[in-house]
Amino acid sequence: MDIKDKRQQILDAALMLFNAQGFHGTSTASIAKAAGVATGTLFHHFPNKETLLQTLFLAVKQEFAAAIQAMASPDGPLEQQARRLWLGAIDWALEHPDKQQFFQQFSLSVEIPLALREQAMQEILGFIGAMIAEGQRLGLVAELPLALMLENCHGQYLAATRFFLDHPALGQDHGHREASFRLFWRALAL
């Protein structure tokens, strides 16, 4: 087994245990055991539990961004582009409930430093900010501070996905999916 595999095993085990037991309820020894590696191997890859959590946060955020950005298309009206991204993001959450649960638990947690949350929003999910800025330029989206609008979008996404994770059948219901997008779009539009 190569080093990358062990690192990924540690991240996978951390995801499972952080979701089940929380950050403070999970020890590095329990993560190493669940990953099938020695505790020293865990510390070789991650100097402490905080770094492991932050690395996992960025990795999951990057996976999420790559998945929904692949759905992005500059074709069509901005609202249609936003709908594709929103519904794609909802689908990602339903397809990856463990990773979405992790977002639910840690996206607004004090365990994730503000600078790291901002990095994820500006660098990893920067295409969303660019879409909002384009909407402002076109006069379709309210001229409000971009950073505040991005935080609002994030909060709406967490609320919608929490609802759909709690009610998975409604995550497939066209009416509920469209209603979640309408709520999102109305918060942005003029």
Automatic annotation (TrEMBL):
<dbReference type="GO" id="GO:0003677">
    <property type="term" value="F:DNA binding"/>
</dbReference>
<dbReference type="InterPro" id="IPR023772">
    <property type="entry name" value="DNA-bd_HTH_TetR-type_CS"/>
</dbReference>
<dbReference type="Pfam" id="PF00440">
    <property type="entry name" value="TetR_N"/>
</dbReference>
<feature type="domain" description="HTH tetR-type">
    <location>
        <begin position="4"/>
        <end position="64"/>
    </location>
</feature>
<protein>
    <submittedName>
        <fullName>TetR/AcrR family transcriptional regulator</fullName>
    </submittedName>
</protein>
<feature type="DNA-binding region" description="H-T-H motif">
    <location>
        <begin position="27"/>
        <end position="46"/>
    </location>
</feature>
<dbReference type="InterPro" id="IPR009057">
    <property type="entry name" value="Homeodomain-like_sf"/>
</dbReference>
<dbReference type="InterPro" id="IPR001647">
    <property type="entry name" value="HTH_TetR"/>
</dbReference>
<dbReference type="InterPro" id="IPR050109">
    <property type="entry name" value="HTH-type_TetR-like_transc_reg"/>
</dbReference>
<keyword id="KW-0238">DNA-binding</keyword>
